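Researcher: Please translate sequence to structure tokens.
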Amino acid sequence: MKKLFVISILGGVSISMGGSAFVNAAPNMALGGFLFSLGLFLIFQFKWGLYTGRVQNLVEVSVKSTVPDLIVLYFGNLLGTLSAGYVIRFCGKPSTLERVEEIVQNKLSSTNLEAFVLSILCGIMVYAAVEGYKRVEDPVGKYLAFILPIMGFLFSGFEHSIANLFFISLANAWGIEAIIFSAIIAIGNLIGGCTIPLVHKLIKH
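Model: Translation complete:
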């Protein structure tokens, strides 16, 4: 569990790196979406931990063994994104902070239902990215397989729980509303990430 917690902190920092690049690249969504995939690239390369990248284990492995891991992963990712978010905020340019504050304000203005649906769709896309990287053997195709779903969910405005932890920290927008929003997104990502493997399992049976 200690090792899992450490690599999940690093996973949170990795997503923060991608999130920082995304914010600084705005309003160029194509470039921002591409650069955001840096976070997942680092996680794949160094085998670090990401909550949204392992939720499918609830279906593919077992609920009993996966739930404790997901709790550790989420809170490790939280610590990583909090740390990176406030460090980058301390060093950040005023224009960057204004941009992320606007992004977070728009996110928090969503209804709970809207946020929940968008987070489920994001979970599906993240699952596609993770599985694409695992299954595609072609060296170029392997990277396209995870970059395209990541760019897709960013362009579509889907909600990624760990990225949002970073954005909220960078914007210094934590409060009851942000905590509730983050919890909803985390649950939605979990459901979305389990959707495709659950359908596959039902088909097989």
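Researcher: Any highlights?
Model: The two ends are 33 Å apart (CA to CA).
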